[in-house]
Design goal:
The chain has 144 residues and is of the alpha+beta class. Helix content is 49%, strand content 24%. The N and C termini lie far apart (92 Å). This is Pilus assembly protein TadG-related protein.
Amino acid sequence: MRRMADERGQMTVLIIGFGVIIILLMVVVFDASQVFIYRRGLAAIADGAALAATNGIDDEAIYTGGVIGNKVVLSEELARIEVQAYMQDVADDSINCDVTGINAAEVTVDCEGTAHLPIVNAISGAGALTVYAEASAETFATAG
Protein backbone atom coordinates (compact mmCIF):
# COMPACT_ATOMS: atom_id res chain seq x y z
CA MET A 1 0.00 0.00 0.00
CA ARG A 2 1.35 3.34 -0.98
CA ARG A 3 0.99 6.54 1.13
CA MET A 4 0.42 9.94 -0.27
CA ALA A 5 3.33 12.32 0.27
CA ASP A 6 1.26 14.90 2.19
CA GLU A 7 0.05 12.38 4.79
CA ARG A 8 3.45 11.61 6.26
CA GLY A 9 3.81 12.52 9.96
CA GLN A 10 0.06 12.96 10.65
CA MET A 11 0.05 10.12 13.17
CA THR A 12 2.97 11.69 15.05
CA VAL A 13 1.11 14.98 15.46
CA LEU A 14 -1.99 13.12 16.66
CA ILE A 15 -0.04 11.05 19.22
CA ILE A 16 1.79 14.12 20.56
CA GLY A 17 -1.52 16.03 20.82
CA PHE A 18 -3.21 13.23 22.75
CA GLY A 19 -0.14 12.86 24.98
CA VAL A 20 -0.27 16.56 25.90
CA ILE A 21 -4.01 16.31 26.66
CA ILE A 22 -3.48 13.26 28.89
CA ILE A 23 -0.63 14.95 30.78
CA LEU A 24 -2.74 18.08 31.35
CA LEU A 25 -5.64 15.97 32.63
CA MET A 26 -3.29 14.16 35.01
CA VAL A 27 -2.01 17.50 36.36
CA VAL A 28 -5.55 18.78 36.95
CA VAL A 29 -6.68 15.55 38.64
CA PHE A 30 -3.57 15.34 40.85
CA ASP A 31 -3.71 18.96 42.00
CA ALA A 32 -7.49 18.87 42.48
CA SER A 33 -7.14 15.78 44.66
CA GLN A 34 -4.48 17.60 46.72
CA VAL A 35 -6.96 20.43 47.40
CA PHE A 36 -9.74 17.95 48.24
CA ILE A 37 -7.53 16.07 50.72
CA TYR A 38 -6.34 19.34 52.27
CA ARG A 39 -9.97 20.51 52.62
CA ARG A 40 -10.90 17.30 54.42
CA GLY A 41 -7.97 17.68 56.81
CA LEU A 42 -8.89 21.30 57.45
CA ALA A 43 -12.49 20.26 58.16
CA ALA A 44 -11.22 17.70 60.69
CA ILE A 45 -9.11 20.39 62.39
CA ALA A 46 -12.13 22.72 62.46
CA ASP A 47 -14.23 19.96 64.07
CA GLY A 48 -11.58 19.38 66.71
CA ALA A 49 -11.27 23.10 67.38
CA ALA A 50 -15.05 23.42 67.78
CA LEU A 51 -15.09 20.51 70.22
CA ALA A 52 -12.17 22.06 72.12
CA ALA A 53 -14.08 25.34 72.28
CA THR A 54 -16.92 23.60 74.11
CA ASN A 55 -14.48 23.15 77.02
CA GLY A 56 -14.71 26.91 77.49
CA ILE A 57 -17.55 26.60 79.96
CA ASP A 58 -18.41 29.72 81.91
CA ASP A 59 -17.97 28.39 85.46
CA GLU A 60 -19.42 31.53 87.04
CA ALA A 61 -22.53 31.31 84.91
CA ILE A 62 -23.10 27.68 85.91
CA TYR A 63 -23.37 28.60 89.57
CA THR A 64 -25.63 31.54 88.82
CA GLY A 65 -28.10 29.65 86.62
CA GLY A 66 -25.86 29.08 83.59
CA VAL A 67 -27.57 25.86 82.56
CA ILE A 68 -30.40 26.47 80.12
CA GLY A 69 -32.46 23.30 79.98
CA ASN A 70 -29.79 20.69 79.34
CA LYS A 71 -27.28 23.09 77.74
CA VAL A 72 -24.28 24.64 79.47
CA VAL A 73 -23.46 28.30 78.76
CA LEU A 74 -20.09 28.94 77.11
CA SER A 75 -17.73 31.85 77.62
CA GLU A 76 -16.48 33.35 74.35
CA GLU A 77 -13.16 34.31 75.91
CA LEU A 78 -12.59 30.82 77.33
CA ALA A 79 -13.70 29.22 74.04
CA ARG A 80 -11.10 31.28 72.14
CA ILE A 81 -8.40 30.25 74.63
CA GLU A 82 -9.35 26.57 74.19
CA VAL A 83 -9.25 26.89 70.38
CA GLN A 84 -5.81 28.50 70.49
CA ALA A 85 -4.50 25.78 72.82
CA TYR A 86 -5.90 23.11 70.50
CA MET A 87 -4.33 24.74 67.45
CA GLN A 88 -0.90 24.85 69.13
CA ASP A 89 -1.15 21.10 69.76
CA VAL A 90 -2.39 19.83 66.39
CA ALA A 91 -1.88 22.32 63.56
CA ASP A 92 0.98 24.15 61.94
CA ASP A 93 1.27 27.91 61.71
CA SER A 94 -0.23 28.07 58.22
CA ILE A 95 -3.73 27.25 59.53
CA ASN A 96 -5.75 29.89 61.37
CA CYS A 97 -8.85 29.01 63.37
CA ASP A 98 -11.01 31.32 65.43
CA VAL A 99 -14.35 31.36 67.17
CA THR A 100 -16.70 33.26 64.86
CA GLY A 101 -19.96 32.73 66.65
CA ILE A 102 -21.19 31.72 70.06
CA ASN A 103 -24.82 31.34 71.02
CA ALA A 104 -25.13 30.35 74.68
CA ALA A 105 -24.21 26.65 74.37
CA GLU A 106 -23.24 26.47 70.68
CA VAL A 107 -19.94 27.60 69.24
CA THR A 108 -18.90 28.03 65.60
CA VAL A 109 -15.26 27.90 64.52
CA ASP A 110 -13.91 28.99 61.13
CA CYS A 111 -10.56 27.78 59.86
CA GLU A 112 -8.48 29.02 56.96
CA GLY A 113 -5.43 27.43 55.39
CA THR A 114 -3.41 27.40 52.20
CA ALA A 115 -3.36 24.32 49.99
CA HIS A 116 -0.29 24.05 47.80
CA LEU A 117 -0.64 22.61 44.31
CA PRO A 118 2.62 20.74 43.74
CA ILE A 119 2.59 20.43 39.96
CA VAL A 120 1.17 23.89 39.19
CA ASN A 121 3.63 25.35 41.70
CA ALA A 122 6.54 23.59 40.01
CA ILE A 123 5.48 24.92 36.62
CA SER A 124 4.39 28.46 37.42
CA GLY A 125 5.52 29.15 40.99
CA ALA A 126 2.02 30.32 41.95
CA GLY A 127 0.29 27.11 42.94
CA ALA A 128 -1.57 27.91 46.17
CA LEU A 129 -5.25 28.18 47.07
CA THR A 130 -6.87 29.48 50.24
CA VAL A 131 -9.25 26.90 51.68
CA TYR A 132 -11.93 27.50 54.32
CA ALA A 133 -13.77 25.18 56.71
CA GLU A 134 -16.42 25.79 59.37
CA ALA A 135 -17.55 23.59 62.23
CA SER A 136 -20.02 23.90 65.10
CA ALA A 137 -20.33 22.11 68.42
CA GLU A 138 -22.83 22.30 71.25
CA THR A 139 -22.63 21.53 74.95
CA PHE A 140 -25.10 19.39 76.84
CA ALA A 141 -25.48 18.83 80.57
CA THR A 142 -26.30 15.39 81.91
CA ALA A 143 -27.60 14.54 85.35
CA GLY A 144 -25.06 12.47 87.15
